[in-house]
Amino acid sequence: MKKILIVEDNAMNRVLLQAVLKPEGYEILLAEDGQTGVDIALREKPDLILMDVMLPVLSGYDATRQIKMNPETRNVPILAITANATPRERDRALDAGCDGYLAKPIDTRALPEQVRLFMR
Asked: Residue 4: beta bridge partners?
């Protein structure tokens, strides 16, 4: 079973993402802050990470950099998720090492296909 790590500090967003992706057959891992997201990513080696960029403890940008610097997780695709959907913010996420970018609010009908496109 493919694993998706959702790193999101907003409980409602975590529930929504999990509700959309779990029925698609994915095992869902959850983190509420950037540091916990890094720790889970290094331990569990998920197949995909959905990373909010504005997180407590460690930003999504810094968490992404740490995950991408580790040889064991550098190839895990990371999709940035943010409500600040500007070209500058998109570039910032990609510069941090994210492989893609999703704007909030998430289109729950399109999400499963978007996830499949990035799944390794």
From this structure: 28, 48
Tell me the mean pLDDT in the region 41-53: 97
- pTM for this model (two decimals): 0.96
- Locate the domains of the chain by residue range: 3-118
Residue 118 to residue 113: CA distance in whole angstroms: 9
- Angle of the 111-118 helix axis to the 11-21 helix axis, nearest 10: 80
Q: HSE, CB side, 13 Å, CA atoms: give it for residue 109.
A: 0
Angstrom distances, CA of residue 31 to CA of 5, 21, 41: 7, 15, 10
CATH of domain 3-118: 3.40.50.2300
Cβ neighbors of 19 (< 8 A, separation 6 or more) are none
